[in-house]
Amino acid sequence: MINLKTFYLFMLIVASYFTASAQVSTATKSNSNINQLYIRLNTVIQQENIPGLLVAIVKKDSILYSGGMGYADLNQHLPVEHQTQFHFASVTKFFVAMGIQQLVASGKLKLNDRIRDIAPEIPFDNHWEATDPVRVVHLLEHTAGFDDVQLNSMVDISKRKPLAGINAIKAVSNSLTVRWRPGTMMSYSNPGYNVLGYIIEKVSGMPWDKYLIEQIFLPLNMRNSLFDLDGTHRPSFATGYDFQKGEYRPMPFYRPSGNGAGSALVSNAEDMSKFMLYLLNGNTDTRLLDNAGLKEMETIHSTLASRAGLQTGYALGNDLFPNNKKVSLRGHNGKGEGFVSWLFFNREAGIAYAIAANSIVNLWPISQVIEEFLTTDISAPKPVSRPIDEQKIKPLLGYYQFMNPKNERWEFYRRIFGGIELTGVSKDRLVVRKENGQLDSLVHVGNGIFRLKDDILPAFVLAKDPNGQPFFQGYGNSFYRKASRASVLIQKLPIYLGLMALLIYLVYSLIGIFLTLFRKMKLIDLSIPLLPIVGTCCFFAAYRLMGQTDASHKELFTSFNGTSFSIFLGMLLFAVFVVVSSLLLYSRWSRLNRLWHRLFLAFNNFFLCYLVALLSINGWIGVPIWMM
Fold it and tell me: d(Cα 444, Cα 441) in Å, to the nearest integer?
């Protein structure tokens, strides 16, 4: 463990050394704006507890900055330099999508090709395959309807050789079940990009990583970029850290899940600068996509929202982010074991930057500083608004149910509690009430497309699907369908009553403990309300342990061990104790003198049993994590 105060004291002593060691051109380094940027970034990494930071900034045909600051390795006091390699995690998907698009451009593949036709051996289940097959474009845009990777498949700690070919796809097949008609809505799925890696192999005849190295890295002279498929630490790699309680814990390197096509990229500031120059200016090498091909990658093809005119969202391996108040940026971010990364660009404005940190931290403050620097000479566009056709929009008002959880098992509750209500329209505004009561006033820009008041790009659409059913998309690719509020309330009510029963039993148990101590209440009668409370404590302890394990010890999900069994047992005990409490109530029924008392306990236990049933049906109880 490295003490935070000691680390930053040492960091301040050698700050001047880092300023000299950041590898940028002499001309740009002497620029006072770059120096000011460096100072501001150095301040932010201290405020945000970032051990080391990779930074690459490109504007039009120039590299403004290519280097880093902070430490690549805290124990050895190794600074981040322009050749220090960082793991970029999900930024890998942008490169895999580019590889697929290269195959499309060369005529070897089409975006609308059916996956069953390309590789019938891929083990996925699509109830709608006859009418709505899974196509290449659905994998690229996360619209196939697949689940995200399961807990026990996030990392590979086995001693065997890295998985390859169809075996790598079988390793993540527990996520390859289609949950809605492909091409309806977006839901981020890492296993979908594992499948794309396999498709590259099928079509090109070579391993997906070798193909991307040959077709992208080599033409751009990205000699220090690779795909880490074996989890072996190299001297040039930055070490990832977990920051907790003022100290940094080094994170181990793991093999990626499946074949690694969703998360294995490793690169440095120098190579990312070369790649961004290509994005902004193109390249004459025929192996690379031309400007038309790059533009195609920025287009959303498959969602209902895109067919209704909305082009904000996830396209071919890249997302569009409307946050900046002057210019929109697109790209990809990544989050892995001890690393977080962003790659953002705007080809029209001629700006791009890549950042990566060797700890799971918030990069937003870093990006704000860089984007302010890059957009200094860019004027904010004039906001656009159009009057709403009230006759067209008013019939679409009402309650909309959330429909596209990233992981069906762990986010099922969002279908119940994640809805929104479109409450009214006025001139050019649509009023949206979120579940927490927050009101948003969306500005209409035309054809049922809306933006937030302070955004420069629209990110919301209200329309009807081909069957005439109203839908709403917004809030970061979240998809909603119009539903009866009563039907959702029917789902919420027993959950609320179950939670109320727990609260009542908590108070009842606290009182009952004192009554039992003074022999005013029998211990067996106290057990009826107390056991569900003990079970609830076990459940929340297990859920908290699962969150902590997910953050810093994912390898523990992959096998039977003390942690994985504790999570399984803690959640199971909630069900066991509720059932035992109900059985005790049944056995003591005739001995409980007052009818109201019996009915009171029966009411509470009924809704507690409902909670147990709901959690069991959705896979929270009784499912060993290591066998999911």
Answer: 10
DSSP letters for 166-218: HHHHHTTGGG-B--S-TTS-----HHHHHHHHHHHHHHHSS-HHHHHIIIIIT
Confidence of residue 5 (pLDDT cuts 50, 70, 90): very low
Give the chain's length. 628
* 239 three-class SS: coil
The residue with tokens 């399984």 is: 568
* Helix (H), strand (E) at residue 476: none
pLDDT tens digits, 215-269:
999 999 999 999 999 988 899 999 999 998 889 999 988 888 899 999 999 999 9
Q: Report the distance separating Cα 18 and Cα 70, nearest Å.
A: 8
**Hey, what are 486's tokens?**
């009563």
Instruction: Give residue 305's pLDDT.
Output: 98
SS3 69: strand
485 neighbors 397 (Cβ within 8 angstroms): no
**What's the chain's Rg over C-alpha atoms?**
27
CA separation for the pair 414, 612 (Å, rounded): 18
pTM of full prediction above 0.85: yes
d(CA 348, CA 327): 10
d(CA 83, CA 507): 60
Nearest to 376 by CA among 325, 323, 320: 325
3-state secondary structure 125-179: ECCCCCCCCCEHHHHHCCCCCCCCCCHHHCEECCCCCCCCHHHHHHCCHHHCECC
Confidence of residue 583 (pLDDT cuts 50, 70, 90): very high
- DSSP secondary structure of 404-447: --SSTTTTTHHHHH--EEEEEEETTEEEEEETTS-EEEEEEEET
Q: Are 370 and 37 in contact (CB under 8 A)?
A: yes
Cα 609 to Cα 278: distance, rounded to the nearest angstrom: 59
